[in-house]
Automatic annotation (TrEMBL):
Identification of the protein by name: Anti-anti-sigma factor
Pfam family name, one: STAS_2
CDD domains: STAS_anti-anti-sigma_factors (cd07043)
Organism name: Xanthomonas codiaei
InterPro entries: MlaB-like_STAS, MlaB_ABC_Transporter, STAS_dom, STAS_dom_sf
Domain STAS stretches: 1-109
High-level lineage: Bacteria, Pseudomonadati, Pseudomonadota, Gammaproteobacteria, Lysobacterales
Amino acid sequence: MTTLSSDFPAPLTLALEGEMTIRRAAELKPLLQPALAHPGGLHLDLGAVSEIDTTGLQLLLATKQAIQADGRPFSLTDSSRAVVDVIELLGLLEALYPHAVASLDARLH
């Protein structure tokens, strides 16, 4: 199940669940389309995502890039362990969680 909520002009909140893999790419892309046009940006909740592969990450990064290209906010509000593990493995923590990485760096120095 996918949940959408919005309080204009606040960011759209989109919660995805299940797999974000090549098998579901054709299904997921249209779910993200409303966020690309939403003037308030996107808060994406991946807390119920059970698996993500490189296709899912490409879709995630392309969505982030398209939204931020004109200054709208994009953030991941929650991520499952499966998502975080793949993001860490591929060295994408800073790209997808810049505030968390900056906060951690500040605490370490």
